[in-house]
Write a structure and sequence with these properties.
This protein is an alpha/beta fold and 315 residues long. It has a domain at 5-164 and 213-270: Alpha-Beta Complex (Spore Coat Polysaccharide Biosynthesis Protein SpsA, Chain A), CATH 3.90.550. Helix content is 40%, strand content 15%. The protein contains 12 helices and 10 strands. An 8-stranded mixed sheet has the order 3-2-1-4-8-6-9-7, with helices on both faces. Helix 1 (13-26) links the parallel strand 1 and strand 2 (30-35). The radius of gyration is 21 Å and the shape is globular. The chain starts with a strand and ends in a 7-residue tail after the last helix.
């Protein structure tokens, strides 16, 4: 395969070994590896990081391996963003996998074909490998267009990543422009993303992917999502950096996407995006909480005090 693959890894050699084995089946001619360093507060982590990096010695197909290793710990926000900056300084396009994202073999050909097909289409900024739709959902084509950029296995181009802003510097202007209402007509969805972007802009969240969504939205970019799930996240467990809980999004089965059937036009799948808001981004819970807050806010102060006096709201 002539499309470069970027692998982001850290301290879980067992998971990295599985993902590296999947990459080996695709036999990319160039492998770009990003690794964060151990945290000083966790003495055992240095050995885990060493074991993880040593797995690159198992690469046994014709492949150039380039590495971007951090000696100290940069954290999720700085390490992934700086690592992908490095990747797209090296190459024009890449397929990107993290160490807990296990791809189906057809994920690679799917990405490679769409990278070529949409190379010069500026609206397409992201090619995702995840599908979270309901089991009875059906798509007449091999993929659909979405406003959501799922990052459990994805691909993109330098032209798109150049628009990435880890600090969301343009968020205040974007927020005042009213463009978020066009992207998220649902008021609860809009409020949720506004809160997320506020937290990112204020530096309260150590992540990189929410900034990618914002950067794409700011640039008028959209994503491609496959009609079948092509990547399974196998990393939801206690030693994860963020995904330490159990969720129905973890360990989802994958399937062969087959020969690609292309949609006739680039149009957002609004029903599928609404499903993702509710199911992937926990929109059900956010909506329930905010509806309750709005109803309580409309109550007269004395009545509200009487209603709440007998309730333990923190139980």
């Amino acid at each position: 395969m002539n499309t470069p693959v970027a692998l982001i890894m850290f301290n879980r050699p067992d998971l990295t070994q599985q993902v590296l084995a999947a990459i080996a089946k695709a036999r990319p001619s160039l492998l770009l590896v990003i690794a964060d360093g151990p945290r000083a507060s966790r003495p055992q982590e240095a050995e885990k990081c060493r074991q993880t990096r040593a797995l690159l010695q198992t690469v046994n197909w014709p492949c150039e391996v380039r590495t971007n290793f951090s000696q100290g710990n940069l954290g999720c926000r700085r390490r992934v963003s700086s690592g992908l900056d490095w990747v797209f300084e090296q190459v024009e396009q890449a397929i990107i996998l993290e160490d807990d994202c296990l791809p189906h073999p057809s994920f690679f050909s799917y990405c490679q074909e769409l990278l070529e097909r949409y190379r010069d289409e500026p609206r397409i900024m992201h090619i995702g490998g995840s599908n979270f739709q309901a089991k009875d959902w059906h798509c007449p084509h091999s993929y659909y267009f979405s406003k959501y950029m799922h990052i459990w296995g994805w691909a993109s181009w330098r032209r798109a990543w150049e628009l990435y802003d880890v600090n969301t510097a343009l968020w205040p202007t974007f927020k005042q422009s009213g463009r978020l209402k066009d992207l998220c007509p649902n008021p609860y969805e809009r409020a949720m993303w506004s809160r997320y972007f506020d937290n990112i802009h204020a530096g309260r969240t150590d992540t990189w992917d929410t900034q990618w969504i914002f950067s794409c939205w700011q640039a008028g970019g959209i994503s491609i999502s496959p009609a079948v799930n092509l990547v399974s996240n196998i990393g939801f467990r206690p030693d994860a950096t963020h995904t330490t809980w159990q969720t129905k999004m973890a360990n989802r089965p994958t399937a062969d996407i087959g020969e690609l059937r292309h949609p006739p036009a680039i149009e957002l799948a609004t029903a599928e995006d609404h499903w993702d808001f509710l199911e992937v981004y926990n929109g059900h819970s956010f909506t329930r909480r905010n509806r309750l807050h709005r109803r309580l806010a409309r109550l007269p102060a004395r009545l509200l005090q009487g209603c709440l006096s007998g309730l333990d709201l923190w139980s």
